[in-house]
Design brief:
With 326 residues, the protein is of the alpha/beta class. It folds into two domains: 200 residues, 3-Layer(aba) Sandwich (D-Maltodextrin-Binding Protein, domain 2); 99 residues, D-Maltodextrin-Binding Protein, domain 2 (3-Layer(aba) Sandwich). Helix content is 40%, strand content 15%. It is built from 14 helices and ten strands.
Length: 326
Amino acid sequence: MHRPRGILASAGIALMLAPVLTACGLGTAGGPVPEATLAGDLADAPSLEGAPIAIGSKNFSENVLLGKMALIVLKAAGADVEDLTNIPGSAAARQAHLQGDIDAMWEYTGTGWLVYLGNEKPVQGKEEQYEAVREADLEANELVWLPPAPMNNTYAFAITQESKKKYGISTMSEIKKVPRAERTFCLESEFANRADGFPGALKTYDLADGAVPRDNVQIYQTGAIYDATASGECVFGEVFTTDGRIVALDLEVLEDDRSYFPNYNVSLVVREETEAEYPEIQDVMGPVTEKLTDEVMLELNAEIDVDGREPEDVALDWLRSEGFVE
């Protein structure tokens, strides 16, 4: 299972110690980029004829999918694209971006602010978080964050439809309605221990100081949490809000009604020198980014993680269905 924000306990250390990378040594699994022609809202988009643009991604389904979308669209606009998607590990992907091995990749605002830039607390509000990371990463690293998508791949707790009916809850504030002995949680180890993870959530929602018995918390590998929650091994499962398994397993995401979890809106991040030479990238990618909602990503991620389709096929089919290419 992916970590959409690239939050690793050793991320900062890995970034500092990462060896010099070269494009051929990134360990990517990129392949041929499908041929397409711009259409619809992009029919009159400015040309990127001959622009050399290397697109990278981390190695989880959603990020690979988004990378493939960018490759298809930019190639259709005339760019000479290089597919460096599926880089193993967030630290390696970030290092490649900083060094210029890749020109652009999709990143999440919360990741940039909390992990890469080392801030301890998120900025409340989608636009406010985006503006903060945009300004800071440009100044510190000469990276340009293009306007973000509506989608927000953040943390959440999910329950089954049966639990929703049994306890009559739809928000995190209502977890207190569940009897103490039945407040069971399936979590990944990192989330369970981070101050801005489970402990902070309990405090925010008045569930600290023994309101959740220690034995009620079970630790799983991230991908196993979805099935464990669906099968009733716990009432509440930690999930990512755009993971396709939420839909496939008919889970219900509880509303974070006190806005505890950070914003993780996705943005195409371009090296400043690349953006300065080819400002047309924003014009070409903007209409696509605007269509990337939570609902869209839930469906597309499910096609990859549940149905087993290849990311490039899912990307091309969606771009066609939206009329961006033909």
